[in-house]
Amino acid sequence: MxxxxxxxxxxxWFSALNFHGACGKITPSSPRSLLRLCSLQHSILRxxxxxxxxxxxxxxxxxxxxxxxxxxxxxGYRRGGTETSALAGATFRIDAGETVGLLGESGCGKSTTxxxxxxxxxxxGRIARGAVYFRGRGLLELxxxxxxxxxxxxxxxxxxxxxxxxxxxxxxxxxVAEVIRAHRTWGRRRCRSRAEDLLAAVRLDDxxxxxxxxxxxxxxxxxxxxxxxxxxxxxxxxxxxxxxTTGLDSRTQTEILDLFLxxxxxSRTAFLFISHDPGVFAGLxxxxxxxxxxxxxxxGGLDQVYRTPLHPYTQGLLDSMPRTSGGALDTQRLCPIxxxxxxxxxxPPGCPFAPRCSERLDVCGAEEPPDAGWNGGRTVRCHxxxxxxxx
Length: 391
Ligand code: SF4
Description:
By secondary structure, this protein is an alpha/beta fold. The protein has helices at residues 2-15, 31-58, 110-117, 144-150, 162-165, 172-183, 188-201, 207-211, 220-232, 250-265, 302-307, 312-319; strands at 17-20, 25-28, 66-79, 82-95, 99-103, 125-134, 137-138, 155-158, 238-242, 270-275, 287-292, 295-301, 323-325, 328-330, 379-380.
């Protein structure tokens, strides 16, 4: 590739010279054609740089039915003249039709991951390094127009907070139809009909009434369903659902999870399902990634991770989950993780989980465990669990 680029550059620069056969002199072409050649050469070099980066990036992954590939994604937020890391080198992959869970306590970088993938970080957020490839296209290199075309149509996000995500002065059904209008060249009637079908598909009763209601006239569960209908409006290949059951009563939670199960069973859409609650992934996710202090500390098949959690943090999250014993809720065996997640602006040296870890070794306070990266199967980022990924 490098040789092709240098040959092309040479051809371009030779074509910028005029050869005068009679006197044997070589003179440069007009300034305008030189400028045009400069810009053409710049475009070729930019294209080549992206192609080389992409080739290097993809070489770490096996190409199967891969939809999204993320490598070394690192995000920081500027506050008061300093930048605080929120995501430190996340590397993962999502295949077409797959449901991947992202688990971790609040403030560990889950929502930042979702926002960074869609380039929707707030003004003080910055992607410091990394690469994101969706269907082979580098999302971080795309222009804002191209990115707008992808958002909602190919990748959509179910926002965590409906009261912020929904427009309070616009009727709920219109907010679904608006997404369709933004990405399709359909007439108003067809968009409305599709929006009504979507409201029915997310199991909202009395579609006519809900369509014409303002968000404040709907319950929390109904607003969540409107957000899910919006996310599905253009049949995206990937839906990112950020805490879609948080703040709902347990009955509505179960109904929303059932709805996702049904969507998963009847479509080729892939889901990145984000939650702080290990219980919501059961039966839903194919794979699970566990995140702590902006790092993916463990990933693997859901059953594998639940049956034999490797990282002490994953173990702690599962132990703090209520279980049933003889059909009744057993609260006696609840075993919460001591302490709280670290302040990301002043992480302790070594492993960020060390202050809360009951299995810490001497090395843990001095050296951070190496990034496990992605090996297509099970990974864990912990000094005490090195080499145990095959379990
Ligand atoms: S690296 Fe050490 S402190 Fe961190 S989770 Fe593993 S054992 Fe605990």
